[in-house]
């Protein structure tokens, strides 16, 4: 892998702002300001703080990944995508399990909002393949998908590309297979990042930040290793250091 600059490494980080309200999220974001990383707004924060949290983060100069993992009938997802696009986010996700028509509807919703002049730019749309908390055993025995987990991930990646989406969410362990199937330009956004010695928690398919970078991922989604630290800025800086070390 080519050596990354500090700025390039920071550009790859999406900090999962899994906080209960806007005040807590913005206090954390402020501590990380000036480092060029993205902020990810997920269900906990968005359901509490609403659309204004997106505007608050954008006005502070952050790029925003809105992680609401839409999974519904195509018509509903199309409307959801239109509303999300109007918010001005840079990237959002849907569930690959919703199928091609649903994913296509998400892409259409984006186009409709942009063409109607309701949005300045089109956000990237990506599909969740298999959650990084899902293990091989859970996939086979609970979810009921037979075969290898990596094959299930690649299957959804192919479908999402067919539907016109720009990338997927997967674990860093599947990046090489996704890129081989869908091309190097197909974006991989990878949670399941744990620095050595960090608490794994509910994640199942994990790598260190450095292994994720060496594996060719485009973006690393990192929550608790940064946000639960007593010094989030220092935790982020240590991760960045590990990513750029020769
Ligand atoms: O779409 C996501 O962001 C996502 C997909 C996935 O498969 N696994 C996953 O962990 N995530 C999100 O990534 C973040 C990971 O957070 P930590 O486990 O605290 O680093 C959380 O906000 C999850 O909601």
From TrEMBL:
Residue sites binding substrate per the record? 18, 40, 67-76, 132, 194, 203, 223-224
Name a GO molecular-function annotation.
orotidine-5'-phosphate decarboxylase activity
Give the record's GO CC terms: cytosol
**What SMART domains does the entry give?**
OMPdecase (SM00934)
**Known catalytic reactions:** orotidine 5'-phosphate + H(+) = UMP + CO2
What is its pathway? Pyrimidine metabolism; UMP biosynthesis via de novo pathway; UMP from orotate: step 2/2
Task: Give the Orotidine 5'-phosphate decarboxylase domain ranges.
Answer: 12-239
Alphabetically, which GO biological process terms does the record hold?
Answer: 'de novo' pyrimidine nucleobase biosynthetic process; 'de novo' UMP biosynthetic process
* UniProt cross-references to InterPro entries, sorted A to Z: Aldolase_TIM, OMPdecase, OMPdecase_AS, OMPdecase_bac, OMPdeCOase_dom, RibuloseP-bd_barrel
> Family, per the entry?
Belongs to the OMP decarboxylase family. Type 1 subfamily.
Q: What is this protein called?
A: Orotidine 5'-phosphate decarboxylase
Q: What is the native source organism of this protein?
A: Cohnella abietis
Task: Tell me the gene name.
Answer: pyrF
């Amino acid at each position: 892998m080519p050596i990354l600059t500090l700025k390039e490494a920071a550009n790859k980080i999406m900090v999962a702002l899994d906080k209960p309200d806007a005040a807590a999220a913005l206090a954390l974001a402020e501590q990380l300001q000036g480092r060029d990383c993205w902020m990810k707004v997920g269900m906990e924060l968005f359901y509490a703080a609403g659309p204004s949290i997106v505007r608050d983060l954008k006005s502070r100069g952050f790029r925003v990944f809105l992680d609401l993992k839409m999974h519904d009938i195509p018509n509903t997802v199309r409307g959801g995508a239109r509303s999300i696009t109007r918010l001005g986010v840079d990237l959002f996700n849907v569930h690959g399990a919703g199928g091609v028509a649903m994913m296509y509807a998400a892409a259409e919703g984006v186009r409709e909002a942009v063409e109607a002049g309701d949005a300045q730019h089109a956000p990237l749309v990506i599909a969740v393949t298999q959650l990084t908390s899902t293990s091989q055993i859970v996939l086979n025995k609970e979810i009921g998908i037979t075969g290898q987990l990596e094959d299930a991930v690649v299957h959804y990646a192919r479908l999402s590309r067919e539907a016109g989406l720009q990338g997927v969410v997967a674990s860093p362990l599947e990046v090489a297979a996704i890129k081989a199937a869908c091309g190097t330009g197909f974006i991989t956004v990878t949670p399941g990042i744990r620095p050595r010695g960090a608490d794994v928690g509910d994640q199942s398919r994990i790598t260190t930040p450095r292994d994720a970078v060496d594996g060719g991922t485009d973006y690393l989604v990192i929550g608790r290793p940064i946000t639960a630290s007593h010094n989030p800025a220092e935790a982020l800086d240590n991760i960045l250091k590990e990513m750029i070390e020769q």
